[in-house]
Amino acid sequence: MLWNILTYFGDSMLILPTGITLALFMLWRADSPATTLIWLITLGISGLAVSISKLLFLAWGIGSSTFNFTGFSGHTTMSATLWPVMLWLISQRFQPDRRRLMIAVGYFIAIMVGISRLALHAHSVSEVLSGLILGSLCSGIFLYTQRSRDMRYFTFTPLVILLILPLSLMSIGKKAPTQQFIEHLATQITGKQPWTRAKLLE
Protein backbone atom coordinates (compact mmCIF):
# COMPACT_ATOMS: atom_id res chain seq x y z
CA MET A 1 0.00 0.00 0.00
CA LEU A 2 2.82 2.42 0.88
CA TRP A 3 4.61 1.86 -2.43
CA ASN A 4 1.39 2.36 -4.36
CA ILE A 5 0.76 5.66 -2.56
CA LEU A 6 4.31 6.85 -3.22
CA THR A 7 4.26 5.81 -6.86
CA TYR A 8 1.08 7.84 -7.46
CA PHE A 9 3.12 11.00 -6.82
CA GLY A 10 4.61 10.36 -10.26
CA ASP A 11 1.50 9.25 -12.13
CA SER A 12 0.47 11.36 -15.13
CA MET A 13 -3.09 11.53 -13.82
CA LEU A 14 -1.70 13.63 -10.95
CA ILE A 15 1.35 15.23 -12.57
CA LEU A 16 -0.18 16.75 -15.70
CA PRO A 17 -3.23 18.50 -14.15
CA THR A 18 -1.07 19.73 -11.29
CA GLY A 19 1.57 20.98 -13.73
CA ILE A 20 -1.06 22.93 -15.68
CA THR A 21 -2.42 24.36 -12.42
CA LEU A 22 1.10 25.50 -11.50
CA ALA A 23 1.32 27.27 -14.86
CA LEU A 24 -1.89 29.18 -14.13
CA PHE A 25 -0.63 30.23 -10.71
CA MET A 26 2.70 31.29 -12.21
CA LEU A 27 0.82 33.43 -14.72
CA TRP A 28 -0.98 35.05 -11.79
CA ARG A 29 1.90 35.48 -9.35
CA ALA A 30 5.05 35.91 -11.49
CA ASP A 31 6.26 39.29 -12.72
CA SER A 32 6.56 37.98 -16.29
CA PRO A 33 4.53 35.56 -18.42
CA ALA A 34 7.87 34.11 -19.55
CA THR A 35 7.95 32.10 -16.32
CA THR A 36 4.75 30.30 -17.31
CA LEU A 37 5.98 29.68 -20.85
CA ILE A 38 9.32 28.29 -19.68
CA TRP A 39 7.55 26.02 -17.20
CA LEU A 40 5.19 24.62 -19.83
CA ILE A 41 8.13 24.02 -22.19
CA THR A 42 10.04 22.30 -19.37
CA LEU A 43 7.11 20.06 -18.48
CA GLY A 44 6.51 19.29 -22.15
CA ILE A 45 10.13 18.39 -22.87
CA SER A 46 10.22 16.11 -19.85
CA GLY A 47 7.07 14.24 -20.86
CA LEU A 48 8.08 14.11 -24.54
CA ALA A 49 11.50 12.63 -23.75
CA VAL A 50 9.89 9.87 -21.70
CA SER A 51 7.29 9.13 -24.37
CA ILE A 52 9.87 8.99 -27.18
CA SER A 53 12.14 6.65 -25.21
CA LYS A 54 9.24 4.30 -24.52
CA LEU A 55 7.98 4.42 -28.11
CA LEU A 56 11.45 3.66 -29.50
CA PHE A 57 11.55 0.51 -27.41
CA LEU A 58 7.96 -0.64 -27.82
CA ALA A 59 7.93 -0.08 -31.58
CA TRP A 60 11.45 -1.05 -32.61
CA GLY A 61 13.09 -2.63 -29.56
CA ILE A 62 15.59 0.19 -29.13
CA GLY A 63 16.90 -0.29 -25.61
CA SER A 64 19.78 -1.91 -23.77
CA SER A 65 19.87 -5.50 -22.59
CA THR A 66 23.15 -4.75 -20.80
CA PHE A 67 21.54 -2.11 -18.60
CA ASN A 68 18.04 -3.60 -18.73
CA PHE A 69 16.82 -0.30 -20.17
CA THR A 70 13.52 0.04 -22.03
CA GLY A 71 12.97 3.79 -21.57
CA PHE A 72 13.02 6.45 -18.90
CA SER A 73 10.86 5.81 -15.84
CA GLY A 74 8.01 8.23 -16.49
CA HIS A 75 6.90 8.38 -12.86
CA THR A 76 10.41 9.21 -11.68
CA THR A 77 11.10 11.70 -14.46
CA MET A 78 7.87 13.62 -14.08
CA SER A 79 7.98 13.72 -10.29
CA ALA A 80 11.56 15.07 -10.40
CA THR A 81 10.33 17.70 -12.85
CA LEU A 82 7.21 18.76 -10.96
CA TRP A 83 7.62 18.51 -7.20
CA PRO A 84 10.76 20.65 -6.74
CA VAL A 85 9.08 23.40 -8.78
CA MET A 86 5.82 22.98 -6.86
CA LEU A 87 7.57 23.40 -3.52
CA TRP A 88 9.66 26.29 -4.87
CA LEU A 89 6.46 28.05 -5.88
CA ILE A 90 4.70 27.69 -2.53
CA SER A 91 7.82 28.63 -0.53
CA GLN A 92 8.27 32.11 -1.99
CA ARG A 93 7.58 33.82 1.32
CA PHE A 94 10.40 31.90 3.03
CA GLN A 95 14.02 32.91 3.40
CA PRO A 96 16.41 31.52 0.74
CA ASP A 97 17.79 28.76 3.01
CA ARG A 98 14.33 27.46 3.84
CA ARG A 99 13.30 27.77 0.20
CA ARG A 100 16.25 25.60 -0.83
CA LEU A 101 15.21 23.09 1.81
CA MET A 102 11.71 22.95 0.33
CA ILE A 103 13.16 22.36 -3.14
CA ALA A 104 15.30 19.56 -1.69
CA VAL A 105 12.13 17.99 -0.26
CA GLY A 106 10.73 18.02 -3.80
CA TYR A 107 13.72 16.05 -5.05
CA PHE A 108 13.39 13.68 -2.08
CA ILE A 109 9.80 12.98 -3.14
CA ALA A 110 11.08 12.11 -6.62
CA ILE A 111 13.68 9.76 -5.15
CA MET A 112 11.00 8.00 -3.12
CA VAL A 113 8.84 7.67 -6.23
CA GLY A 114 11.80 6.07 -7.99
CA ILE A 115 12.32 3.65 -5.11
CA SER A 116 8.63 2.75 -5.22
CA ARG A 117 8.93 1.89 -8.92
CA LEU A 118 11.75 -0.50 -8.08
CA ALA A 119 9.81 -1.98 -5.17
CA LEU A 120 6.82 -2.59 -7.44
CA HIS A 121 9.09 -4.15 -10.09
CA ALA A 122 7.84 -1.63 -12.65
CA HIS A 123 11.32 -0.49 -13.74
CA SER A 124 14.98 -1.38 -13.63
CA VAL A 125 17.60 0.59 -11.74
CA SER A 126 18.91 2.15 -14.97
CA GLU A 127 15.44 3.36 -15.93
CA VAL A 128 14.82 4.94 -12.54
CA LEU A 129 18.26 6.58 -12.30
CA SER A 130 18.11 7.95 -15.84
CA GLY A 131 14.59 9.23 -15.19
CA LEU A 132 15.71 10.91 -11.99
CA ILE A 133 18.61 12.58 -13.82
CA LEU A 134 16.40 13.71 -16.69
CA GLY A 135 13.67 15.12 -14.45
CA SER A 136 16.16 16.78 -12.12
CA LEU A 137 17.91 18.35 -15.09
CA CYS A 138 14.62 19.76 -16.39
CA SER A 139 13.49 21.20 -13.06
CA GLY A 140 17.03 22.37 -12.22
CA ILE A 141 17.31 24.34 -15.45
CA PHE A 142 13.87 25.89 -14.86
CA LEU A 143 14.72 26.89 -11.29
CA TYR A 144 18.06 28.32 -12.40
CA THR A 145 16.43 30.47 -15.06
CA GLN A 146 13.93 31.77 -12.49
CA ARG A 147 16.40 32.52 -9.70
CA SER A 148 16.10 36.30 -10.15
CA ARG A 149 12.39 36.44 -11.03
CA ASP A 150 10.06 38.35 -8.75
CA MET A 151 7.31 35.98 -7.59
CA ARG A 152 4.63 37.30 -5.23
CA TYR A 153 4.26 34.87 -2.36
CA PHE A 154 1.07 33.03 -1.55
CA THR A 155 -1.28 33.93 1.25
CA PHE A 156 -3.23 31.13 2.91
CA THR A 157 -6.29 31.09 0.63
CA PRO A 158 -4.45 30.86 -2.73
CA LEU A 159 -2.17 28.22 -1.24
CA VAL A 160 -5.15 26.09 -0.24
CA ILE A 161 -6.65 26.52 -3.72
CA LEU A 162 -3.35 25.44 -5.30
CA LEU A 163 -3.23 22.28 -3.19
CA ILE A 164 -6.88 21.28 -3.69
CA LEU A 165 -6.31 19.70 -7.11
CA PRO A 166 -3.41 17.36 -6.24
CA LEU A 167 -5.03 16.37 -2.95
CA SER A 168 -8.37 15.62 -4.61
CA LEU A 169 -6.71 13.63 -7.40
CA MET A 170 -4.74 11.62 -4.85
CA SER A 171 -7.94 10.82 -2.98
CA ILE A 172 -9.45 9.43 -6.20
CA GLY A 173 -6.29 7.48 -7.02
CA LYS A 174 -7.17 6.87 -10.68
CA LYS A 175 -4.13 6.04 -12.83
CA ALA A 176 -3.46 7.41 -16.30
CA PRO A 177 -3.40 4.82 -19.14
CA THR A 178 -0.26 6.34 -20.68
CA GLN A 179 1.62 3.04 -21.05
CA GLN A 180 -1.33 1.43 -22.81
CA PHE A 181 -1.63 4.43 -25.13
CA ILE A 182 2.04 4.25 -26.15
CA GLU A 183 1.77 0.48 -26.66
CA HIS A 184 -1.25 1.02 -28.91
CA LEU A 185 0.61 3.74 -30.82
CA ALA A 186 3.60 1.46 -31.31
CA THR A 187 1.33 -1.27 -32.69
CA GLN A 188 -0.34 1.17 -35.07
CA ILE A 189 3.03 2.39 -36.37
CA THR A 190 4.70 -0.98 -36.92
CA GLY A 191 1.72 -3.31 -37.31
CA LYS A 192 3.40 -5.67 -34.84
CA GLN A 193 3.01 -6.50 -31.18
CA PRO A 194 5.01 -4.18 -28.90
CA TRP A 195 8.41 -5.27 -27.73
CA THR A 196 8.67 -6.58 -24.17
CA ARG A 197 11.41 -6.59 -21.58
CA ALA A 198 11.54 -10.38 -21.73
CA LYS A 199 12.22 -10.26 -25.47
CA LEU A 200 14.98 -7.67 -24.98
CA LEU A 201 16.72 -9.84 -22.38
CA GLU A 202 16.55 -13.06 -24.38
TrEMBL record:
Protein name per Swiss-Prot or TrEMBL: Phosphatase PAP2 family protein
Pfam families per record: PAP2 (PF01569)
Organism: Rahnella laticis
Database matches in SUPFAM superfamilies: Acid phosphatase/Vanadium-dependent haloperoxidase
Keywords for the protein's UniProt record, in alphabetical order: Membrane, Transmembrane, Transmembrane helix
Phosphatidic acid phosphatase type 2/haloperoxidase domain span: 18-143
Membrane spanning stretches: 6-25, 37-63, 69-89, 101-122, 128-146, 153-172
First and last residue of the signal peptide: none
SMART domains according to UniProt: acidPPc
